[in-house]
Amino acid sequence: MILVVGGAGYIGSHTIKEILSKGYEVVVLDNLSTGHKESLDSRVQFVEGNLGNEELLDHVFTTYSIEAVMHFAANSLVGESVQDPAKYYTNNVAATLTLLQKMKEYNVSNFIFSSTAATYGIPETTPITETTPVAPINPYGRSKLMVEHMLEDFHAAYGMNYVALRYFNAAGAYETGEIGEDHTPESHLIPIVLQHLLGQRGTISVFGTDYHTADGTCIRDYIHVTDLAKAHVLSLESLLNGKNTNAIYNLGTGKGYSVREIIETCEDVTGMKATIIEADRRAGDPDELVASADKIYRELGWTPEYSLERIIESAWNWHRSHPAGFKVTQ
Ligand SMILES: NC(=O)c1ccc[n+]([C@@H]2O[C@H](COP(=O)([O-])OP(=O)(O)OC[C@H]3O[C@@H](n4cnc5c(N)ncnc54)[C@H](O)[C@@H]3O)[C@@H](O)[C@H]2O)c1
Ligand SMILES: O=c1ccn([C@@H]2O[C@H](COP(=O)(O)OP(=O)(O)O[C@H]3O[C@H](CO)[C@@H](O)[C@H](O)[C@H]3O)[C@@H](O)[C@H]2O)c(=O)[nH]1
Fold first, then answer.
1. Residues with beta carbon inside 6 Å of ligand 2?
2. Neighbours of 23 (CB within 10 A)
3. N or C: the chain end with fewer CB closer than 10 Å?
4. pLDDT category, 328, cuts 50, 70, 90?
5. pLDDT, position 283
6. What value does the mean pLDDT of the chain take?
7. Is 329's pLDDT higher than 80?
8. What positions does the domain NAD-dependent epimerase/dehydratase occupy (predicted)?
9. Candidate list 140, 167, 211, 257, residue with the active-site label
10. Cβ 25 vs Cβ 2: under 8 Å
11. Burial of 259 per CB tally in 10 Å (0-12, 13-18, 19+)
C-alpha cells in the first residue's frame, strides 16, 4: 500500500489516479487545510488529520502495510511564507521530520518528496539542471531545501531511500475534467486567467513588464499535472525495484513561456479576449525559470507529453465545468 500524504490536494489527487492505474492500493493522510475530499478517488482509504500528529501516524503505520510514502502536504504560497515563516517551518519542515522519524520507526524506507524549482532562487544560467546551485530566496523555498537536506542525511545514516522531485510550474487538469486545480486564494497564473475569462475576475494583473526577457514579462516552464503524476509513478517503481536509492530530479518541459504568451494562448484556446493591467513586479519573481529535465529522461525514461495548448485546454475543460471548483456537485 502507498501512503499519499496531502493526497486531497491538486497534484496529490492527480498522482493518485496514476498510482491506482498501475494497480497499487492507496491510503491518503490529509488535514483538508487546502485540499478537497471531493478530489479523492473512491478507491482510496482516507485518514483525516495532521501529518505532524505522532499518534495518528502510529495508527496509519500500524493499520496499513505501507511500502512507500509520497509526500505532497505543504503550505506553498511564497508571499505568505515571507509574512509568516513560522507556519512554513512548522508545517513543511517540522511536520515532515515527524513523518520521517515515524517511517524510520516502522521501517518504511521509500520516500518521494514534492520539492520545487524555488530551491534554485534566482539562477544564473538557464536551462536549470540539478547541479545548478541551490539558493532559495524565500522561506517557502528554504523549507523545501531543508527537507532535501534531511533526506540526504536520513539516507546516509538510516538507509532511507528517496526521490525528491523539483517541480516547475504545475498546471492543467485531469483529462476527463473530473478533477482539477482549486486553490483559495488562487495565486497561479493559468487558473487566474481562465477564471477571468469565465467572468469571475474583473482584470488580470501582469506582474512586471520590465524583466530581461523578450517581451518584458517573466518566463516559466509549465508542466501538466498528469505528466508530473507519471514521473511520481516512475520514481516509485525505481525505489521499489532498487534502481534508485537517492535522487533529485527536475520536472519541467524544457520550454519557457512568458506571462504574455500564457495569456495569449488562453485567449486562443477559449476564443475570448482578456483585459489586462500592467502592474508592479511581485516580490521574489526571477526573470526566467526553465528546467532541463534530461536527468529523469536518461535515468527513468520520463518525458512530458502535454504541449502548452493541451495544458490550457485541459484546465479550461475543468474550470468551465466546475466554475466554483469542488463546491459544485455534478
Ligand atoms: N503547484 C505547483 O505549481 C507546485 C510547484 C512546486 C512544488 N509544489 C509542491 O507540491 C506539493 C503539492 O502542491 P499542490 O499545488 O498540490 O498543493 P495543495 O495545497 O493543493 O495540496 C497540499 C495538500 O496537503 C494537505 N496538507 C497541508 N498540510 C498538511 C498537514 N500538516 N497534514 C496533512 N495534510 C496537509 C492539504 O490539505 C492539501 O490537500 C506541495 O508540497 C507544493 O509545495 C507545487
Ligand atoms: O495574477 C498573476 C499571477 C501570476 N503572474 C506571474 O505569472 C508567473 C507565474 O506565477 P505563478 O503561477 O504564481 O507561479 P510561480 O510563482 O512561478 O510559482 C510556481 O512555481 C514554482 C516553481 O517554479 C513553485 O515553487 C511554486 O510553488 C509555484 O506556485 C510569475 O511571473 C507571476 O509573477 C502574473 O503576472 N499575474
1. 76, 116-118, 168-169, 187-189, 192, 204-207, 218, 220, 259, 282, 285, 289
2. 6
3. C
4. low
5. 86
6. 97
7. no
8. 2-252
9. 140
10. yes
11. buried
Domains assigned to the chain: 2-171+223-251 (3.40.50.720), 189-220+254-291+306-327 (3.90.25.10)
What are the start-end ranges of the E strands in the chain?
A: 2-5, 26-30, 45-48, 68-71, 110-116, 161-167, 169-171, 204-207, 219-220, 222-224, 246-251, 257-258, 276-279, 288-289
Distance 9 CA to ligand 1 centre (A): 6
Residue 76 C-alpha cell reads as 506553498
For the stretch 310-319, pLDDT in tens is 999 999 999 9
Instruction: Answer whether 120's CB lies under 8 Å from 134's CB.
Output: yes
pTM for this entry: 0.98
Q: Please give the pLDDT value at position 265.
A: 98
pLDDT band at 51 (very low <50, low <70, confident <90, very high): very high
The Cα 173–Cα 310 span in angstroms is 10
Our answer to whether residue 140 is catalytic in this structure is: yes
Query: Stretch 138-149: mean pLDDT, rounded?
Result: 97
β-bridge mates for residue 166, sequence order? 115, 250
Task: Count how many residues are written for the chain.
Answer: 330
∠ CA 121-304-322, rounded to 5°: 85
Find the helix packing angle between 259-270 and 308-321, rounded to 10°: 60
Band of pLDDT at residue 284, cut at 50, 70 and 90: confident
| Total Cβ atoms within 10 A of residue 294 | 14
- Can you give the pLDDT at residue 330? 45
Any atom of ligand 1 within 6 Å of the Cβ of 91: yes
Rounded distance between C-alpha atoms, residue 219 and residue 123, angstroms: 13
> Which of 224, 244, 218, 242 lies closest to 299, judged by CA?
244
Residue showing cell 537517492: 246
What is the pLDDT averaged over residues 317-330?
A: 86
The Cα 231–Cα 223 span in angstroms is 11
